[in-house]
User: Fold these one by one.
Assistant:
Number 1:
Amino acid sequence: MQENIRNFCIIAHIDHGKSTLADRLLQVTGTVTDREFHDLMLDTMDIERERGITIKSTAVSMRYPAGNGRVYELNLIDTPGHVDFSYEVSRALASCEGALLVIDAAQGVEAQTVANLYKAMEQNLVVIPVINKIDLPSANILEVMGEIEGELGLDVDDTVCISAKTGEGIPDLLEAIVEKIPPPPGDAHLPLRARVFDSMYDPYRGVVVYVRVVEGSVSRGDDIMLMASGSRYSIEEVGRFGLKREPCRSLAAGQVGYLVAGIKTVADVRSGDTVTMADEPAGEPLEGYEEVKPVVFSSIYPVSSEDYEDLSAALEKLRLNDASLVFEKVSSPGIGFGFRCGFLGLLHLEVVQERLEREFDLSLVLTAPTVRYRITLTDGTVLMVDNPVDYPDPSTISLTEEPYIKASIIMPDRYIGQVAKLILDRRGENYKSMYVGRKRVEVTADMPLSEVVYDFYDKLKSVTQGYGSFDYEMVGYRSSDLVKVDILVNHEKVEALSMLVHRDRARQWALNACKNLKAEIPRQQFKIPIQGAIGGQVISRETITALRKDVTAKCYGGDITRKRKLLEKQKAGKKRMKMVGSVAIPQKAFLAVLKRDD
């Protein structure tokens, strides 16, 4: 029955206990037995377990017999906390009527807590504040309640205090979910409209489509149509999400589940698309998701050109599971054919690279990540450039602009000096600070995105000893003095290592790149100069010394002229080798250029 369904998600800052709370809910509702249970039940990818973070939103259905005698179907979506995966959070919120906003009893309200609350409010969701980790010795429940009321503007009386680790307060939370979150709207008798919120590729069944049924119902054997592409399919299986996929007879309005319809073409399915009946289609599709806007760009090439088709197929399958990934075909004279990809941040880039290498067994080369610059030419043409290869001749440019963000950092006040220095080092502007608690400060500043995407978050965690939290939003483009820095290895330009940087940072970046390359490129039998240059002007240089074979080892005494003759012969050979020798740059050298040495 529709009034017995509750759709909700768990949102929070990183490490505030979302996945642990999901584990406890699964145990308390009896969805998983003690014998089957293991930690982080919903983090199914190896990379999620190794890094200890949630990357993919995961849906699961639970049966809960409430105190009023009714049995409720609770559809839970566990979401990521890292700012790079905020697109996953926005898609999860669009499939729910309520959200549990989890706050750490020791850390209090953090930057992503505020950002996620605003996203939930935009979707008009019922928000239940949940104070987690009340079993910690450092827990300060009264202070956190003050922050919930003062900073977030939520009613403290609705707050539920729990310990996801020990299970304390979980029954009260389940009752709050049933009482406060409304049942899903929608009429089961109207024509079918179901929103695609995610999908995955099964090598045996084709594309498995994850849907939230908004109106109507869908059963096995029905003929459906995807409204964006107009493609038609016959349903082989419908089901709900338990810990594994559980087939059922039908899905009705308000339910969350999956469809298997023998969809072979990955490109036909898009997140946000509407599924309807082929014979009785709905009048208009559901409102889709906002378009994803990538902020970091990098080119991905296969190490072996024979793997190009495999890489193309792998990216298509990955995009099915990760809707925030965008890519297009490119070619480089030095590396061959590949793809220019857009990401939501550097962690997103790392995760995509690791998934391609693990899940699809590919060896890859990645170029240095860049942001998208706006360049106005003297003839009035406006170009959007995210690849240094496309940077026009400097004499034709009248204005260059780079993207700026508004950064929000919440931390204990004792770190304000180090954080202010870090922001100024990264060309921050409009610095402001205000107290948001007794000893907690929120700092806001406008910063160039290019200064943030590399390692700003790591540096922030370092200077605040892990207590600083960071969130940002795009604020548009501002004028900037950009230059293109080229890297030359043995006097040959390596396009894949070129970089667009601010003029004040150019020499520092070039010195750093040359130093890192020197450490990674293996020595040859001739000297290898590594240079950083702006146009024709060299601004940095490192030299890899030659390997020297001891050609006189076989001489045991005798006339010195024999040794000299051997050394002269070696010298001539090295000179000839330097003229014709080419330097193979290993993949780790490309990655070494990204390391920032402040």
Number 2:
Amino acid sequence: MKANCCQCPTASSKRWGSFILIAGLLSVLAGCAGTPAIVCGDLGGTAFSADEDSLGLDEFLALNDAQRESRHRQARRHLAEANKAHSAVRRIQALNNAAGVAPDDPDIWLLLADIWRGLGNYLATDASLSNAAAAIREFDGDSWLEAERGFDYGDRAALETALQRAWLHYDRGEWREAMPWVRAALKVEPGSSAVLRVRGLLEGIQGKRGMAHQLAEDLRRKDAFTTDISWVMFNLDTAMGRHREAFNYCYTLRPDQRRAAECYRDMARAAERVSEWSWARRWYRESAAALPHREISCLSEVSYTRVSDPDGDSTLPFWLAFDEHYVTGSLSAYLAFAYAQFEAATNTTDQERWGGLVVNAAGICLRLEMEEAHVRRVRGLVFARTNRNERAVTDLEVALEGLRHDKKMVAELEAEIGHLLLIQEKHDEAIGRLRHSVTGEPDKAQAWSDLGLALIMAGDEEEAVEALTRAIALDKGLAAAWYNRGLMHFHAGNLTAAKADLAEAARLAPDNPDVARLLQQVVQQQKRQ
């Protein structure tokens, strides 16, 4: 892959002039193994396409009774289409049409939220639930919804919305954010087994021993044969760091159908934590088999190495919707896969898309306290490639501390941190980092090139030339190293050497105006001699 050599100089005001900092690209990770991706159709096919214009809730409520009733009839037709649809794209489009013409019906938004969550699109899930909540707020005793669906419909819709919100946050490892929705659900139906289950799981995973045990007993009183108690208890053991004990709970656990996909997923994660790979694979596949909407879902199975074992032979499965959104399976393997797609991206759109997916998955991994050093490393590298330098340095520093035992990764991280410090013009700090990097991995051309530039800025010209020469010897395609060495020769009055280096930099980076400008200046000065 060819590096992009058009970056801004780091310190044009220095006495050496405009030295160019050009980041090398890391090698692309290997492609995925596993089941070939299923062609799901274009997500653009889910867009609103009804005959009537799509309206916001306030606009809809401003219509007269006849207009609203006409739209409700249209919405019912679209709902019938949704029920008959045999693909996720067609069902979502039909539901979007129904919601667009009649946005006051919470059930439509709740159906959309349920499908989007089943397809791993958390942003769309969140938006659908927000629209459901807005519709519920407009509900009153005279509503057509009460006449059609019963006097307690408002409470039932509010309960379902709160539960879906709680489970969405649970999926994302956002335990505290889920609790207000659990409390809202409890106000609607305090004795609901569904509410007690998710509350018990949340109290357990937050390490609240007393509350977890109390809720487990409450669940037992409601159903002596429930499997939710073991689920709550292994969440509690996970929170306390007793991972083998948590796995032992899972060993004989047989989830019921109500939340089997989530339960099997959590069981597989417990197995993954203690390196029980065969159980992890088995339970992840059980989770995938129990997913809702399988009759319409466009899921593809991928097997990939975990983020903490990129060179390992052991792979774990995960399932994607629309070839990008994580649905279930090993989140660690998905993170490694998403990072590989980010690294392989050949355009800004794909890089931003996969970078966002990496950051999102990494955040969930960190909240789940999974493989922190490796997760921070991957997220930090994505931040670095997308110019979020301060966040990159923070993540990479944490990763470095956790990976001190790995000589190769330490050298890589020291080089990346040094590169970022160089961009921030913290040259002395960058030199220390880059020296550590080239000592650990002396064959890394980009690190030598960065070290050469940092030494130039610190005024150590002799060692800078040595570092830049070493970089060029290792990789003759580094335009920045040729340019910076040429600039040093120019300031030293060695025009012949400067011209040779700058000509090579111009060949490697033909669109870089700094290179062309300086080469022209050297040629003109030679003519005047």
Number 3:
Amino acid sequence: MKILTSAQMKEIDRQAIEGIGIPGPVLMENAGQQIFRFLQTVILPYVDEDKIVILAGRGNNGGDGLVIARHLLNNGMNPRVLLLARKADLRGDAALNLGIAEKIGVDVREIKSEADWSAQKRSLKEASVIVDAIFGTGLTKPAGGLYARAIEDINASAAFKVAVDIPSGLSSDTFEIIGPAVKADVTVTMAAPKIPHVLPPAEEWIGELMIADIGIPPALFDSSELKLEMVEKEDLMMGFRKRKKDSHKGTYGHLFIIAGSLGKTGAAVMAGQAALKTGAGLVTVGTPRSCLPAIAKGMAELMTEGLADSEEGAIAASAIARARTLLKGKDAVLIGPGISTHDSTADFMTKLVPDLKLPVVIDADGLNILAKRPDLLKKLPRPAILTPHPGEFARLVDLPLREVIKRKLELAPAFARKHGVYLVLKGYRTLTCAPDGRTFINPTGNPGMATGGSGDVLSGMIGSLMMQEKDALRAALAAVYLHGLSGDLAAEKIGERALVAGDLIRFLPRAVKTMESEVEA
């Protein structure tokens, strides 16, 4: 499902109107009617139908509100419209619907000043339902003056709040809070979600999100220029089809994991366990010899190979010859969980990367070594999947963490394009970026997954699915979705606060089974 900016939505509206010939008033009518139907079926049976207040602005969002008011009146209700503008200031389709609404008797009251607002705001305190149709998607600066006062009073009301397209005060081009904004119980957006609908902190102002079909042909959303999407489960089902009866362990690949160091053997164990539980045929963990016993005890099905130790108990540079031998016969390699960033280990990775001919996943300390030795990025094999959390990504791009978080929708796809890699920027609503600039937002997962080792589990899953899928992007998307689903199942059973990375592995079979069951259904 595509996620749009205000400019992209405006262009799609233009194509629908000018290119296809759907009149603008028809789109506005469809929008208002869809929201009215939602109100009629979900909310109005439980509230006082004479205490419905619609806050309307002068633009098309206000026009949608006037359509809603007309349908409410036509169905026996008595809505009041508080128009935060002069009636004479409305233009185009909004003016058309104002005229229709007034002719059939909708109560429309002009709010031209703070005094006008003070005289009318009592209706908000008495309202059962407030429909916010003030701004819509075009806002780019903080709401001020009368609008800020109105937003404050809307939020203070105990009424059920429905936002038209986007809560007034949010900008559709950023997930940040740019100023005072309506905190909605439900937001009904037109045709496709926008950025603040799906990413925090703005997402917290949205309430439940509903997407209204207003009659725009789906083909208009197929443009290659629309590069931001929400991952949908239906698009991942191919990877969870029933296995063929004549398959064997070689069918599902042999993953080589280079992981672990003194005090960080758990990272290697969890990556290996996750890879096997996600369906890898074979998994071998290459680790410092001193760490091998601990990792071998972690799971009987894991194979282990000892590599030369450095003085710090990490992989030594001298381990390179053995590692090159172990790469033979493997189908993919995962580098990084718990390997440390000691100089000897960094030298090992510097020598290894140019030799790699296999699909590779780089995580954790592997990423921190890349950040210190950025020339290695040019030597990565293809496909390569990098899986940083925001702190690791900040080191990769050499920018402050605050800036990375603020600009992630810009920086993450730019990095993937520049270096020709797949980038999985982990966190709530994980981003997966392809080398062509496409960016996918993952819908699964919860705050309980913000715990040590969660990323190690994900990297093992990605390495496993990359061998099985033979498609790096589809593997990354499926692994991230499944990882979040496992976390959601775990949180449902044990709660978020107590959740640890091992629980993700424990609930992973159930998550896989959930996906497989839906394929079979």
Number 4:
Amino acid sequence: MTKHTRFTVLIALIVALGGFLMGFDASVISGVVKFIEPEFKLTKIELGWSVASLALAATLAMLVAGPLSDKFGRRLILKYAAILFAISAVGSALAPSFVALVVARMIGGLGVGAALIIAPMYIAEISPAHLRGRMVSFNQLNIVIGISVAFFTNYLILKLGQSEAAWAQDLKFNEWNWRWMLGLETLPAIIYFFSLFIVPESPRWLVMQGREEEALNIMNKVSGQEQARLDLAAIHESSTQESGKKDLPIAELFKPAMRLVLTIGIIVAVVQQITGINSVFFYAPIIFEQSGIGTDASFVQAIFVGLTNLVFTLVAIALIDKLGRKPLLAFGVTGIAICMFVLAYGFNSATYTLSEGSLADLPAEIDNEQVSVLVDKTYQSDLQYKHAISDALGEEQAKQFESDLITAAIDMNPTLILWGILGFVACFAVSIGPVMWVLFSELFPNNVRGLAISFVGLINSAISTLVQLVFPWELANFGSAGTFLIYGVFAVIGLILILLLLPETKGKSLEELEAILVKHQ
């Protein structure tokens, strides 16, 4: 590895710590929802809102993050994002009410939106073409590491809450379990903020500001003097083609010249979220509980989800500049569709029969006389069984003990569900997870890149918000089988559109791609 490559990798890894915070902040809620639903007496939509509020705020941040970074620089916006992450972590941990928790989560969402847009943009702008795919994928890698760490720390805190150790009891891991889960993010947020002080500004942004000498000094460190001069000339030529248009209206994105790249960007942005990835990441323990394995096992299997995501993201990083973007997307989205249909089949085949003998295994707080009306009756779907539980115990107790009652009654193959979820995550992680952000950083021309990535990122985040918000409601109204069937159908539609419209972008400079995909008037 040359000194230029080492410098680029170091800077990319530091900037990509924003991805770690985004992944941790987003997925840590997966361990929280089980505890806040009964504590705050939430409806299913309120439960969804506790998860989706972060994505909604991220969506709003995406409206302004790109343009603000075009005006003030990539690095400054990332520093403010780090501050927002820290404020959110402390506020969430100390939240006295559901509303306070949502407000704190939305503050973190503003940081998520900024980091999600600016980090891959910065990395793409500082990386040489032959390394760009892998460098940008560092951000996705850090996102999945953050997700994995959140799953692990959630499980660790759950087990510490069951510990009889004096120090664990003094720190109230049992009473404050979900507060500890949310508060841990404070430390990496502080580390990220101070690490950004050694990161230089984006050379392409400096050129846009007329600061070419500063840009050249940075590019010398990235690729050497000869290549830096060539890259600077290409950037300068691309930037001056649209001189005088620094404050671009959004109408610029809808001109005929931008039609192809914008359509591709929107399709990829929608498909990445509409196939249900954040339902799995943010509700993993709830999904696994639906297969009847119990709370502790569901948290363990959530760790498997994080590790699978991490391993296959590494595979994607190794392959993205070798196989290309389109082959990875085609393979991955095909696998996503298959796995969703497997999950729909697995949950559809489940039956629920509460036997007389299984009553002894239920928590002591459950009145056996109340649930006796369910004994020896077979229910053909989770919807039928949950409605029967609610009728027998009342809505509040049904929510509290749903996992125990499902575990006691279900007859299905939970291993099929585990492999279906892990297969889905693997296919996502090796394809549309990291590839989407690489494509976003490549497709759009220099002069509108900030605005364009903000726009398609906004759409991506809006779909994510919707998916997260309605998932508990979908489970309650369509059942697990119906919910995953819907995701599978969306995956098939997305696959067809990707195969028809997406070109290959690997190995081409940003300026070459602009010349190919965008027709300048």
